[in-house]
UniProtKB/TrEMBL annotation:
The keyword Transcription regulation applies. Coiled coil: none annotated. Residues 7-59 form the HTH lacI-type domain. This is LacI family DNA-binding transcriptional regulator. SMART domains: HTH_LACI. The lineage of its organism: Bacteria, Pseudomonadati, Pseudomonadota, Alphaproteobacteria, Rhodobacterales.
Length: 334
């Protein structure tokens, strides 16, 4: 693991005093623009985040755990946060949330700001980051836990599922029902790396059986029932012989079911449907939709447990990797 840089290291690399480096990073008015730019560039290049805790608290951390997620618009990430919050409830630590909008540059800014307050832990959704974000996470003075995904190279600790495997297993389940005319509908692609990995796993399962997707329709905006309904109408309008549709999220598959009910299509006799996430929104529908349980709350709980374990140890833990198993539920729509 790379040596964690402190302010004096940044000052030395910039060729200025530690006091000047500190004032430059605090945007003090008596430091020249050229010096500020040089110090800021060196700090960013090395993943150094200035400490915003003043004076006597400068060597300590605050009782906050930074949780960085792409969105709170769906039911997915609030359930992760519920797991984090419930696990931290008996401790002095409390979660604080940052939203990135599936934008890696925004994630970089959010994580820089959060780390500047020296939290007791950092929990981040996903494994894909800018180079600068990754350096900041490597240099962080608190435990860093990446969650939701295990298909990649974690910075340190990681808790999640293999999304590639989740897509692959759903592909196998669909093929086992003898469907060969299959379509895919996804949102936030390619920015949602986890959805993209599921699609790759799904396509791999089909390819191994010499089956190709009839069509894949992607949408860059948020998942919604309305969007799922519209895209289902679109893909079935273009390919009425499709036998099965796999969606990147349950919210979209609910929209697909609404389209089928409105147009008189029988599920699964006329068209089979499958989604992802096993959201609570599926409860109470006329049919139990096929889906995959991504273990979201448990992921939040286990990530928080790692933060608490590191706090108790009072020293860096060896990297922990917890790979949970996604669970395929065929419901009544396959």
């Amino acid at each position: 693991m790379a040596k964690k840089l402190v302010l004096k290291d940044i000052a030395r690399l910039a060729g200025v005093s530690e006091m000047t480096a500190s004032r430059a990073l605090r945007d003090a008015p008596d430091v020249s623009k050229a010096t500020k730019a040089k110090v800021e560039q060196i700090a960013a290049a090395n993943g150094y985040v200035p400490n915003r805790i003043a004076g006597s608290l400068s060597s300590q951390s605050v009782n906050l755990v930074a949780v960085v997620v792409p969105s709170l618009n769906s039911f997915v990430f609030p359930e992760v946060l519920s797991g984090v919050s419930a696990t931290l409830a008996a401790s002095p630590l409390k979660p604080v949330v940052g939203i990135t909008g599936y934008d890696l540059e925004e994630e970089e800014e959010v994580i820089r700001e959060m780390l500047s307050w020296r939290p007791s832990g950092l929990i981040v959704a996903g494994l894909e980051h800018t180079d600068t974000t990754r350096r900041m996470m490597e240099q962080a003075s608190c435990p860093v836990v990446e969650v939701m995904d295990t298909d990649g190279d974690p910075v340190s600790h990681c808790v999640g599922i293999s999304h590639h495997l989740a897509g692959y297993e759903m592909g196998q389940a669909i093929l086992a029902r003898n469907y060969t005319r299959i379509g895919f509908i996804g949102t936030k692609l390619p920015r949602d790396f986890r959805a993209a990995k599921r699609m790759q796993g799904f396509v791999q399962a089909l390819k191994e059986a010499d089956v190709a997707l009839v069509e894949q329709v992607t949408y860059s905006g948020d998942s919604s029932i309305h969007t799922g309904r519209e895209l289902t109408a679109q893909i079935l309008g273009d390919h009425p012989d499709i036998e099965c549709l796999y969606y990147s999220s349950d919210v979209m598959s609910v929209g697909g079911l609404m389209h089928c009910l409105a147009t008189g299509l029988s599920v699964p006799q006329d068209i089979a449907l499958a989604g992802f996430n096993n959201l609570e929104i599926l409860q109470g529908l006329p049919l139990a939709l096929a889906t995959t349980d991504a273990r979201r709350r448990e992921i939040g709980e286990r990530a928080a447990q790692i933060v608490l374990k590191a706090r108790e140890a009072r020293s860096p833990l060896a990297p922990i990797l917890e790979v949970l198993s996604p669970t395929t539920n065929l419901g009544q729509t396959l």
